Amino acid sequence: MMINRYLVILVLLFGCSTAFAQRVPAWGGGADQQDLSFGFSFTYVASDFKIGKQADFRDAFRDVDGSIVKGRLNSISSKSTPGFGVGFLTRYRITEHLEVRTTPSLIFADRALHYSYVDPSEDVDKKVQTTSVDVPLLIKLKSDRLGDFRAYVIGGLKYTQAIGSKKNSDANLDLSEKLVKNISGFASYEAGIGCDIYFEFFKLSPEIKISNSFGNILLRENHPYSSPISRLGLHTFMFSLIFE
């Protein structure tokens, strides 16, 4: 279902090129005539975890006194959860078809884990609440301009830093109510496609990207929801509207 949605978006982006080719080319606010230009972005974000499990992850979790806190697990899963971001674009032109850009963005996005137990009454969802700043450094490779349309591919690296999180926010909670936490900062790679659409006073760029984190972003703790997991990776889908 998600793949079909991506394909529809791609068809809409690239299917409009014929219509744009028949117009007198717009100026686009002069963005392409400058080596350095600025803009802003609005982004829809959908995130989920890639989960690595301990060999004994199914075992019941016991307290230090041997009492069972949570029973035997069936599975741990993560579904995609929505969020949004706003960012500020800085772009530097290297050649007519190549540029470097960064879009520091404030991202509001929850991440979710679902724990399914042998006893269904113990099933629980754990949200990893995160507000973060993303700082990507990307290379953009552009096609020739066709009327008011230009396609491109983009890729590079991104650093994510959580803000406003409190490591001890669940210090007073029982073991059965503990939260799952991520490390405060980690790197990812990004890759995507998009198109530049030129208007008289500005340039609009619809863009699709995927992002996958490097390494393990789990903050390890000894409680029923962290202990069964060996590693977490973050997978993110982003659809952005960039105004330049």
From TrEMBL:
InterPro entries: Beta-barrel_OMP_2. Residues 1-21 form the signal peptide. Keywords: Signal. This is PorT family protein. Residues 36-218 form the Outer membrane protein beta-barrel domain. Pfam families: OMP_b-brl_2 (PF13568). The keyword Signal applies. It comes from Mucilaginibacter celer.
